[in-house]
Amino acid sequence: MDLAAAVFIFSLLFTASDSALSLKSRNWDVYSFHINSTVTSRYAITVITSRVANTRDNSNEIDFHVKIPKTAFISKFRMTIDGQTYDGVVKQKEEAQQQYSQAVSRGQSAGLVSSVGRTLEDFKTSVTIAAHSKVTFELTYEELLHRRLGKYELLINAQPGQIVKDFKIDVNIYEKPGINFLEVKGCLGEKGLANAITTTRADKQAWVSFYPTHGQQMDCDGCGETGLKGDLKILYDVDRPQSQGDVTEHGGYFVHFFAPADLARIPKNVVFIIDQSGSMHGKKIAQTRGALLRILDDLAEDDYFGLILFNSDVSPWKRELLQATQTNLEMAKQFVKGITDHGATDINAAVLKGVEMIQQHPRNGSASILILLTDGDPTSGETNQGKIQSNVRKAIGKKFPLYCLGFGFDVNFEFLQKMAQENSGLARRIYEDSDAAQQLKGFYEEVATPLLTSVQMNYTGATNLTQTTFSYYYNGSEIVVAGKILDNNIDDFNTDVIAISKHDMVKYSDIKATKADKLPAVMSGFENFLQRLWACLTVKQLLKKELMLTGEEKEAVKKEALDLSLKYSFVTPLTSMVVTKPEGEDSQVANKPKEGEKPAVHSTRMFSPPSSATVQLRRTGQAYQGHKARSGRILNRLRISSPDYGAFHPPMMYGSIGHGIHHKLLPVFPESDYEDLTSLMLQATAIPVPKGAGLSPPPTVISVRTPVRFLMAAEGQSLPLCFDIPAGHSVKLLQDSASGFSMNGQLMSEGGNGFQKIIIRVNADKHIEFDTNKITIKDGQYMQSFMWTDSDTDHTTDSMIVIIRDSEADITMTNIRVVILLHRQDGKHFLWPAVRKRPLENEIPGIMGKLLVAYEEVNPTKLRIHGVEVNASSDSAGDYSIKAVPRVKCQLVDLKSALQGELSNFTVPQL
Ligand SMILES: *[C@@H]1O[C@H](CO)[C@@H](O)[C@H](O)[C@H]1NC(C)=O
Ligand SMILES: *[C@@H]1O[C@H](CO)[C@@H](O)[C@H](O)[C@H]1NC(C)=O
Ligand SMILES: *[C@@H]1O[C@H](CO)[C@@H](O)[C@H](O)[C@H]1NC(C)=O
């Protein structure tokens, strides 16, 4: 058997196991999918119920995979099979992990079931049920809705993975003071689906229902055989007849919502501290400029402002704060437009400079705010993070808040979080997306209008209070305090609020609690919702507080948060949900991923032993394939040592064409590579079942295989070279022996434009495998798969960052950055690799290893390459390294001339 034939047969094997995955969901029928969400006093309890039948004649593993808001805590998970219920149990994380590792040592596979995206996190599990039997999955999660820019937002994600006969989302909202505004948004509410939504409003209640028909689930934008997929967002606000707020009592607990609006704006002194180090290069700095320009437009004339740029040097725009007059703003805008990036990151000096500027500008009746924007760790000046925190804390002395915005994933977010919290502010992650400027602007808007400072909430006749002092209260937000009423005696309970407004001290006194209305029937089972609200808020605040403490104090706070999490069965960063299953199946453990999680937390590495099928495949010399990561795992937010982008960034400066070969004459890489976030989930829905699926024997007739065309930038020439490689080959794409990195790919086996499979080896025990369905990351013993449709997924370890978004997987390592694009053409999916950053040597092994090729035109049909005359013809090629796939004119030559070597030098026997 010659090599090509062997490769072809291997590829058929792959194809067969691949399609097993996409066929899988047809082996069961989700005949009912309900999401019921009930919101009372901003406390939302959501239940997802999915009823599934095994349609096969033998037992079958059924998946349950849903996404829930990051801000929520899972509180219940139940499976019902043949009338038997299996309830998940919330345990202390370490204990759950131990149970888990016992399962592992018994040789059973078991796994974790969580990962994190921008606003949602995953819950995945599976269970095996008998032929033609049914299973009901029921997941409950709870959250306190937070008021932001004048609205509460309830986010519901639905993606049952197929068309469902009985598909319902019901949202019931009860707010005692009355609902004054309600809006339904999100892609599930758009276009053809809008008329599946019914909204009913009464004074204190609102109902939103979304009952899409079979046809609507089929025909909506981006829907298909895999049914609906997307978000429903319910935005609302409540009436506030009294500025002192609303105090509700229920079951011995109270909650006080305080959000007065009838106050004058307090003029601000605001200083923006902007990281302009080399790592901000490209889109980030451009988006920062854009956001700053818009923020400057929003400053009021009685605001004072300052701008500080920093890298290894700290460069204030002006030495002192200036008033936001038209003239000053115009000057500031000119300055902002000229902001560029270079150098290292001295956070310490920059923040201290900001504090100094604010302190030199005392002003009665004003509110001072420091906003730090950075995308990396301190690398210059003082770099000890503990020292920086302590310097900043001392300098600010609790006099005004510091907000820290962490741009992207190279930042140590926990460091920023801690620093912000120690200074009465908060930290927010800014995601590197096309809407980053809007995220920055949105954050600014939240703090743009201070109405009160030094807010002190006082309660008599109550105990177990959540946080009662707040440095600032901003218009559009809300202060929430909950607690327990002493001896359940509402008569002795009293509240007052003291704060400083623009002009003077304000006091709201003698605020009485009123009883919650009789709860609606839907709330049965959650009679103690106010107590749960209190517990939820308390746990969140304890988890933040714990971050700032050390030693015994830290342990005590952790213990308190843990005890509450266990008592109310919340899956928090301190607890895990052990998913129990029928006899003979292994339990799985669901964890809550923690923003900015540190490696130390994961010293007990969790892993899933490969299944026997996987092992077999490995033994035949193939990499992991067809093995669905039945054990997803919490995604570590590990920090990676910030790669130095400062030295080399052609991918962003110049266009990138073909294979990351950069040339300034080629089209510039589009800024909008992550544009159109809503389409991200839709690209890969209808995954075609490749021919040869279903494990039938390989066909005897081999079809004509169209070759795959590659582009290669040429030095000093306007037209790049192009050449063809016959389909089906497995080729060496890029190899860097210095770091142990390699990238190999297998071309589509029968026609098609790109690759069906790509494997990146980061080092000996870490690799990432891409096919047209999924991305599998294997790191030592740990393995996790993501579907291309798992939009908005990040995976970070100490040596690489993987971001999957919008049919692009972006893999960043210290000296290499590659992007794997998933394209679809003529109903076929295929992969294409693009190198965005690579080691500087002119030539490294692999067909994408050549930086540039030089040729001379001898005549219209002949080129001279390396002194040899070769035949050429003008032709064209699609540039698949760019999402839009522009058609590019090129000089077509044979492979040998372009690559300066035989094809066999570039093929590999297996990936
Ligand atoms: C959802 O709520 C509706 C009414 O609010 C109720 O009729 C239905 O049974 C609920 N569904 C589930 C699965 O709890
Ligand atoms: C606060 O916001 C409300 C609307 O959200 C607006 O009507 C009011 O004018 C704002 N107050 C100030 C002082 O800007
Ligand atoms: C601020 O107010 C205090 C007392 O209310 C007054 O003594 C002081 O002079 C004022 N400072 C400024 C800068 O107006």
Give the helix tally.
Answer: 14
Q: Kindly name the structural category.
A: alpha+beta
Biggest sheet: strand arrangement: 5-4-9-2-1-11-14-13
Helix content: 10-25%
| Mean pLDDT reading | 79
How does the overall form come out from the CA principal axes? globular
Note the quaternary state here: single chain
- Please tally the β strands and state the result: 53
User: Could you give the distance between the termini?
Assistant: 19 Å
Low-confidence runs of at least 5 consecutive residues: 1-23, 107-113, 596-704
In terms of DSSP E residues, the strand content is: 35-45%
Q: Output the radius of gyration.
A: 29 Å
Give a structural overview:
The protein is an alpha+beta fold and 911 residues long. Among the domains are: 270-447, von Willebrand factor, type A domain (Rossmann fold, 3-Layer(aba) Sandwich); 610-685, no CATH class; 708-906, no CATH class. 19% of the residues lie in helices and 37% in strands. The two termini are 19 Å apart. The structure holds 2-acetamido-2-deoxy-beta-D-glucopyranose (3 copies). Residues 362, 364 line the site of one 2-acetamido-2-deoxy-beta-D-glucopyranose.
